[in-house]
């Protein structure tokens, strides 16, 4: 029940945190009231397996979990980091953990990942990630793998001065709400509320309240606010000049009307840009940082030799980046449709080389995790069509994604005929 600053109990025993704050906004937007209960992750994991004791929950996305819940729109993209004592000089990468005692939250996302991908690691289970950091700080065990956001926040929260983060981003993934499979009504209600909260700028305020330690430059939204204030100041100055010099009344009136019109147009433009930027700013900032740091890490690992772990991290980064790019493209297209600037790029494309081959490579790992064979059946070497490449790719992406999601074993075949 301690996943600070996402969700935890305050000094009065009341649920609070980033996730709880967003739930309150969803309640307010829909006129509903949620009964909020915080549990240890082991209990939550058991509830998910048997589909009981919850209608709405929050958790990390994975292909496995996508088969037992329906995920809402992601709230943010996060990752784990390695925390060690400042006196430790022999741990510089995940590979150096072999033979060491590594603390992770029992049955959590990273625990599941390690069981599948790094079974040789000596894992010590704890109830919460904060407990893992406290034990390392006290000189017990060797390292802890915890969420970046909560890990950095806990350093200040518990005055953990004996440990630090190695700044090795590990397993980037989405975090958000999820509902029971088939609960389309609740799914739509939450998704609509999330979009509204982001468009209105409420999400930015909540994010900055709970993640104040995150590196953040001056937001575009603040820029537009100051731009609007500047325009108001100019309008005030114009009015002052008008009252001060009556002889210039006609000219000043004309300039003031022009200024007012320009001000209105600038405010409308600022509002549209602000809504758009506030919706995607955090989804862009965090994963881009993950990609940059992750690639630097992989370069260090690949200097000596290629190993399965490094390739696994590379696949995770590539998958997260492609998911991010597709999300950004969809948002940009939506914004262009709203403003009437969307253009349909129709051209001749080879549906095999331009669409299917890239998509099958992208979904290869996801299919392998579910032990599903992803096959391409070709009855022709080329299949040229006249269409918009992005739209066609998005259609096939949705079809392949759903096929993997609802296929537990066996194979999926994509066929191309003459």
Can you tag this structure with a few keywords?
single chain; about 425 residues; alpha/beta; D-Maltodextrin-Binding Protein, domain 2; Heat Shock Protein 90; 3 domains; 12 helices; 13 strands; globular
Q: Overview of this structure, please?
A:
The protein has 418 residues and is an alpha/beta fold. The chain folds into three domains: 8-210, D-Maltodextrin-Binding Protein, domain 2 (3-Layer(aba) Sandwich), CATH 3.40.190; 220-339, no CATH class; 346-416, Heat Shock Protein 90. The N and C termini lie far apart (57 Å). It has twelve helices and 13 strands. Strands 3, 4, 5, 6, 7, 8 and 9 form a seven-stranded mixed sheet that branches. Strand 1 and strand 2 form a beta hairpin.
Task: Examine the secondary-structure arrangement and name the CATH architecture of the largest domain.
Answer: 3-Layer(aba) Sandwich
Poorly predicted runs are 214-237
As a percent range, the share of helical residues equals: 40-55%
Number of domains: 3
Q: How much of the polypeptide forms β-strand, as a percent range?
A: 15-25%
CATH class of the largest domain: Alpha Beta
Structural class: alpha/beta
The SSE string, one letter per element, is EEHHEEEHEHEHEEHHHHHEHEEHE
From the alpha-carbon coordinates, what is the Rg to the nearest angstrom? 26 Å
- The total of beta strands comes to 13
Q: Mean of the pLDDT scores?
A: 78
CATH topology name of the largest domain, in short, is D-Maltodextrin-Binding Protein, domain 2
- Fourth-level CATH superfamily of the largest domain: Periplasmic binding protein-like II
Supply the number of helical segments.
Answer: 12
Shape: globular
C-alpha end-to-end distance: 57 Å
Largest sheet entry: 7 strands, mixed
Question: What is the oligomeric state here?
Answer: single chain
């Amino acid at each position: 029940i301690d996943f600070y600053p996402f969700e935890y109990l305050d000094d009065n025993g009341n649920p609070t945190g980033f996730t709880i704050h967003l739930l309150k906004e969803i309640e307010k937007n829909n006129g509903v009231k949620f009964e909020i209960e915080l549990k240890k992750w082991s209990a939550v994991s058991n509830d998910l397996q048997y589909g009981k004791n919850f209608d709405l929950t929050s958790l990390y996305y994975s292909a496995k979990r996508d088969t037992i819940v329906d995920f809402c729109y992601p709230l943010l993209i996060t990752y784990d980091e390695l925390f060690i004592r400042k006196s430790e000089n022999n741990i510089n990468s995940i590979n150096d953990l072999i033979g060491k005692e590594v603390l992770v939250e029992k049955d959590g996302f990273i625990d599941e990942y390690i069981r599948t991908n790094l079974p040789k690691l000596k894992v010590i289970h704890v109830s919460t990630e904060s407990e893992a950091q406290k034990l390392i700080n006290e000189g017990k065990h060797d390292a802890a793998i915890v969420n970046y956001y909560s890990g950095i926040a806990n350093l200040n929260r518990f005055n953990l001065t004996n440990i630090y983060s190695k700044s090795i981003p590990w397993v980037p993934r989405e975090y958000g709400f999820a509902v029971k499979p088939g609960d389309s009504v609740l799914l739509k209600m939450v998704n609509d509320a999330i979009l509204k909260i982001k468009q209105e700028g409420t999400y930015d305020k909540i994010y900055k309240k709970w993640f104040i330690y995150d590196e953040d430059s001056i937001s575009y939204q603040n820029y537009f606010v100051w731009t609007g204030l500047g325009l108001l100041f100019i309008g005030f100055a114009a009015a002052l000049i008008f009252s001060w010099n009556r002889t210039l009344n006609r000219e000043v009136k004309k300039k003031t009307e022009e200024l007012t019109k320009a001000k209105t147009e600038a405010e409308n433009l600022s509002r549209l840009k602000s809504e758009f930027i506030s919706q995607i700013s955090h989804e862009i900032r965090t994963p881009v940082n993950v990609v940059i740091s992750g690639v630097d890490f992989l370069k260090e690992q690949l200097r000596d030799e290629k190993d399965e772990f490094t390739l696994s991290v590379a696949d995770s980064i590539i998958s997260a980046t492609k998911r991010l790019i597709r999300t950004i493209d969809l948002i940009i297209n939506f914004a262009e449709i709203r403003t009437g600037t969307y253009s349909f790029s129709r051209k001749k494309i080879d549906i095999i080389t331009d669409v299917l081959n890239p998509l099958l490579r992208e979904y290869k790992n996801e299919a392998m995790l579910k032990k599903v064979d992803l096959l391409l059946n070709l009855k022709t070497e080329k299949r040229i069509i006249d269409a918009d490449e992005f739209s066609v790719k998005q259609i096939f992406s949705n079809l392949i994604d759903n096929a993997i999601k609802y296929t537990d074993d066996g194979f999926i075949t994509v066929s191309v005929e003459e």
